[in-house]
Sequence to fold (357 residues):
Amino acid sequence: MTQLTLTSSPPPQDLKKLEKRKTRLKVIGLFAGCGGMDYGFKKAGYQVVYANDFEASVKDTYERNVGPIDIADIRSIDKSKLPSCDVLLAGIPCQPFSNAGNRQSTEDERGNLFTQVMEVLRIKEPSVVVFENVKGFLSAKDDKGNYMPERIRLELKKRGYTTYYRLLNASDYEVPQNRERVVIVGVRSDINRDYDFPQPIFKTSKLAIGSVLSKPLPKNEAPEIWDLSPQSIEIARHISEGGSWKQVPYEHLPERLKRIRDDMKKYRSPNFYRRFSRTEIMGTVTAAGTPENSGILHPTELRRYSVREIARFQSFPDTFKFIGSSIPNKYKMIGNAVPVNLAYWIALSIKFHIFSK
Fold:
């Protein structure tokens, strides 16, 4: 391959031309979940040759939409038997690094899972590795006091990779949701290629909640909606479009929320039960799907968003089917996923910077 140094990404329309360029680029997806990241790379023209996740509940959905997936603990896998790949994807489980979590970082067993990724990297030596995690990853520390991006940079450097990372908002990449995520890209240094993240794409009215909700459901698909609890219904009925729990009359609040309302300064003025308006971009879709801590309430109806609606907020196409399991579990797998379009634009930028001749 001809050596080429690139320092900035081209306009989005030029990147998009690479989608159908025939390549034989191969991808391994670790912690693949229901397939948001892997599907985005597949959409960009890559071939997923192996995928792994620990959660059995994602198997049917992943295999219906992406391809075979190995349901197993990554620590038990014989990594020497994995197929060769050009790109290794690793959406490290984010719970240890979430702003709402315990922030145990690498002292948490899940935080240490990235060492398993390093082992795959050592054995398979892909050209590129991609990590994705929550914004809190930037300020999380390992057991030696290193910030996690620096820890990963050091680990990658030991194995001959140059690291690039950036905090991205998914809404800049055709995802109808404000979702900030840290994306780390490691490029094998001997390839002698520089990487740059894709340029933000102009935001349009199509990203607004109202635009997403105006689309009819796919033919022959019944709405799947996780029912609200009686308490949530009582609270939500007092909240208008664009509002929150601060509109609820004091006497209709449960005792716990009354205590918080009594001392808002102490609790840093939390904004529970957010009901975004149709003119806004959706807030971050969470795996929990709780009305208290996420904007899961429909702007005009007394219900959560349906499975298909939140899938659209994550930029899953309507052809992507969520199979089996319970309705709450479908909310969970969608909330845990990497937005498809965010992954797609990253995949195209990698194809341009690292694999274009």
Notes: Residues 1-7, 95-108 have pLDDT under 50 and may be disordered. Residues 48 and 179 are 25 Å apart (CA to CA).
